[in-house]
Write a structure and sequence with these properties.
Layout (H helix, E strand, L loop, with lengths): L1 H11 L3 H8 L7 H13 L3 H21 L4 E4 L10 H4 L4 E6 L2 H11 L5 E5 L5 H5 L2 H7 L6 E4 L8 H14 L5 E8 L7 H12 L9 H7 L4 E2 L5 E2 H5 L16 E8 L2
Parallel strand pairs: 1-2, 1-4, 2-3, 4-5
Antiparallel strand pairs: 5-8, 6-8, 7-8
Helix pairs in contact: 2-3, 3-10
Length: about 260
């Protein structure tokens, strides 16, 4: 009975991963998530547009990596594997999804279902050593072949120190020629609006503090990975949809979302 009560509580508290699924027009969310999403959109109307750009960037990048011969993906802080996530975009790839929310991990495992090449692991990427040493990861990726690592829409939920430690640990673990793709959510640190303050406070209340970076901070935090020749690029530029983004979408704080691919050389 206690476990059942805990599960009910988890569905009545807004969750960042389920809100993300709602923004992607998914179906795996609850009324509390929809209400929270509606409130966020009333504050920052461009949120849904940015979230959908993040997913489109991930899909484009994993297809490109698959074209380079990558068939093994470690996706960190995955949220819900819906709306054309890696296992459906690259069906033959071996994919491990990670999330620290028990309910998200349970729903994620159910979504994957009988897909033989995908696994879902409940774990916190802040303890990346335990993840990389887990039997699931060792069995799937322990033979020294290159791996593609995804950090999509997650750096915003980590502190600078957490990002730095994560990048170093992944670099030390990854086989030579492995690649890592990541997104970075930025704003002008000298600019703030009341709506953005309320938006950030909503994430604080959910227990998922949201941290915007600057481009310069993003570039400094990825060491020792080597960025590819394309460098850090706005997602809209990578996707060729710059015309879709308007000044209003910058929400008065010069919002910009960047993507980059890195290599272990």
């Amino acid at each position: 009975m206690k476990d059942d009560a805990q599960k009910v509580d988890m569905t009545t508290i807004p969750n960042a991963a389920r809100i993300y699924d709602y923004m992607l027009d998914g179906i795996h969310h609850y009324e509390a998530d929809r209400q929270a999403a509606g409130f966020m959109l009333s504050l920052i109307p461009s949120t849904k547009k940015w979230v959908q750009l993040l997913r489109r960037y991930m899909n484009l990048t994993v297809r490109q990596l698959a074209g380079e011969g990558f068939d093994r993906f470690l996706d960190l802080a995955s949220g819900l594997p819906t709306a054309d996530h890696i296992h459906s975009t690259i069906p033959d790839a071996n994919v491990i999804y990670i999330d620290n929310d028990p309910l998200v991990a349970t729903i994620g495992a159910n979504i994957i279902g009988e897909h033989g090449n995908a696994r879902y692991l409940e774990a916190d990427i802040r303890d990346i050593a335990a993840i990389l040493d887990s039997r699931v990861v060792r069995d799937a990726f322990g033979d020294g072949r290159k791996v593609a690592i995804g950090l999509n829409a997650i750096t915003c939920f980590l502190t600078h120190d957490e990002i730095r430690k994560l990048m170093v640990a992944l670099y030390e673990w990854a086989p030579l020629n492995s690649k890592l793709f990541a997104t970075f959510e930025t704003r002008n640190p000298t600019m703030m609006t009341p709506q953005m303050q309320q938006f950030l406070a909503a994430f604080d209340q959910m227990g998922s503090p949201y941290h915007f970076l600057t481009l310069q901070e993003s570039m400094a935090l990825v060491a020792p990975w080597t960025v590819d020749e394309m460098g850090f690029r706005p997602l809209a530029e990578v996707l060729g949809v710059e015309a879709e983004m308007t000044e209003a979408d910058r929400e008065g704080v010069e919002l910009e979302f960047y993507g980059a691919v890195f290599t272990k050389q």
